[in-house]
Amino acid sequence: MPIRKDKKDKCIDKVIDFGKQLFAAVLRSRTGALSELARLLRFQKGTKGFEREHDRLLPLIKELKDAYRVSILEAMPSMGLRLGIMDDSDIEKSGKTFPKQQIHHNHTKHSFFSGMKVLSSAVYQNGKIAIANSCIVGKEDNKIEVAKKEVDNLIADFLVEIFLFDSWYCKNPLIEHIKNKNKLFVSRLRCNTKSQFDEDEERLDSLARSMPHNEYEHMKINGKSYWIKDLTLNLKAYGESRVVISKEGVYDKPIFLLTNAENFSAKFIVQLYLKRFCIEVFFKDAKQFLNFGTFLCRKESKWDIHFLLTNILHWAIQTKKSISRTVMAIRENIADCLLFINENLLLRKFLEELKKRCQT
Fold it and tell me: Residue 34: which residues within 8 A CB-CB, separation 6 or more?
């Protein structure tokens, strides 16, 4: 019996050691292709060694997620509201070999592209963010239904109190789901959302243009000026709701925030929504420095592992603004990347938790 246990421990150590090397290779890699990761880790060309080691990670995805969840909770600050943030990002891919690949519409560029959509959910507290989950959303999936599951997971696993999301997710099924959980939300409304006045209807952007600027209250948030108006409106799609209008200048286009948080000030509502931007920083950093979108693989299970490892790596090396300076300082040398991985306190605690879970 002890011999079998020793053999199991050695196997676990080998998998964890490979995981550390894989983290380092992701930092060093330019394309994210498994063949490049194998070359960086000096696996012999044409052998199945790297594939074999990589495949050992696939059955451990539950242990990886559980160890990551425990590590996040241990590292989260003890003070401050715990926020849940949801958003999705485009991954352009040519050909028809990637999981759930289809033609998508890019709303910002007003163009179409072939590729994948990835929905990510994050937990944020007092300046610290961790991407809890990332998953590919295809044609057969409903993004709102996927988002509802992410809400449930964020509440159950991380005790999230307030949810932040943009106008694409501002739909009644998701909003009602959050309300039924007795949680709060702050979301951006589309400017063409209609408000009802007796028998008349008016778009929010038209309503804002009709309001004199002196009706807005000037406030400073993080040293920056905002003009804010707090209203209760009868919205055609949502019923009677609290709407906070915010703009950065007299002639700037305002944004419209919908919320069920009645006890928070309008200034605090805007402050909360500004925290949503940190998930945009994650997508930018992960794509530029962690091969979030350049990864090449046909199997969805391997994409799931890749997203999970990317989320863990970003969480471990996050800085106040961007991970760019940290990564740029080490990415030219695989040895420097590996040294950084070995010395990173958060990664060490995560790997210790992973080993403990694999042994039980």
Answer: 50, 51, 54, 296, 297, 302
